[in-house]
């Protein structure tokens, strides 16, 4: 699941986490933790990430 989050991010052209974390509105370290599975985003944050990556929450986090 989280590995696919990284792959989707890269496929969408977000090579560095700084850019996507800024677009989502969270710190770079927090985004890394979400990708690594160390943190689970709340529903609002999950929706923001899904919107930025043009995917559904289910596709990214379930």
UniProtKB/TrEMBL annotation:
Organism lineage string: Bacteria, Bacillati, Bacillota, Bacilli, Bacillales
GO MF annotation: an example: DNA binding
Residue ranges occupied by any HTH cro/C1-type domain in the UniProt entry: 5-60
Record-given protein name: Transcriptional regulator
Entry superkingdom: Bacteria
Keyword field: DNA-binding
């Amino acid at each position: 699941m989280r590995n696919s989050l990284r792959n989707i991010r890269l496929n969408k052209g977000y090579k560095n986490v700084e850019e996507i974390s800024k677009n989502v509105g969270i710190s770079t370290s927090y985004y890394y933790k979400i990708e690594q599975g160390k943190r689970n985003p709340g529903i609002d944050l999950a929706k923001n990430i899904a919107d930025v990556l043009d995917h559904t929450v289910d596709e990214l986090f379930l």
